[in-house]
Write a structure and sequence with these properties.
315 residues, 14% strand, alpha/beta, 48% helix, 7-stranded mixed β-sheet, single chain
Amino acid sequence: MQKVSGDFVRNIYLIAQAKPDSDLSLGKTGILQACMLKEQLRKKDFGKVCAAGQKSAVQTAAFLSDEVEILPEQLMMGNFKNTFCSLVNDFAESSEGNIAVVLPQGIIEAFTSGAGNLNSQDSKKPDFDFCDYICMRYDGKHCVPDSKIPLKRELNPKLCLEFLDAVKLPDRIVRHVKAVRDQAVKIAGALNEKGMELDAALIENAALLHDICRQEQNHAAAGAALMDELGFKREAEIIRQHHDLKSGEINEAAVVYLADKLVKEDKPVTLEERFSFSAAKCRDEEAAAAHARRFAQAKDIYDKVQHITGLSMPI
């Protein structure tokens, strides 16, 4: 609680819901947006979290609190601004701390326009992307909105692991990506010690996320598309290449690619051991040829890394 000029001021966050899927619940993109929102608002001390009745809004709000109050349906009709400001008084009397309200983008856009009417055709409404929000200061009488705050698109290893948990990736795959991460970080460190300037943080994040869509068909492309949609373009490109590299250059994508080939499930293995396991899955000549090409590519990257670092791998 903040005190200004003798009056207690509370912050009220109007939050645009995460992206709904075709069934109006949150798909993977929306789930990960909600994860990012939770990280961004982690220290906001919400005493009450409310949501519009739409399934996707409620699911978004659930990332902020275990207890979500559903807003009355009549609030979503007519002049939202007047009705909402009246409701805020009730919120303030029945709770402490800040208040989060998760709504469809259109309602927030109407609220921040001059009229505040949901039927307004005001062309000057600000555009709210999924999980963008505004913070309003409430002094017991008035709600004063601040400017729009966009969803931060910043990755770190902790958030990557939260992503994997949020999409319910099986434990065996989580153990695998952690093992790949460990190899990738060690390889990147060894290369950087020899004068390369690889982005170690990018490598770690991409290694943790490279199998986020492992249970989907063509999971490398699916994982890359997911990261692209979230705005993580560099991680997406590495994930896209973790089965087939675009070139033989030693870069961040090559490090994650090689690390993945030096791990079987969650155990470090040699390239020969790893490819002998996968050779048994080749059911025709085309698959066998692709397998041989991938082994040759992996061996080329391995040899280049070994030449630079002098290391035998796995590390």
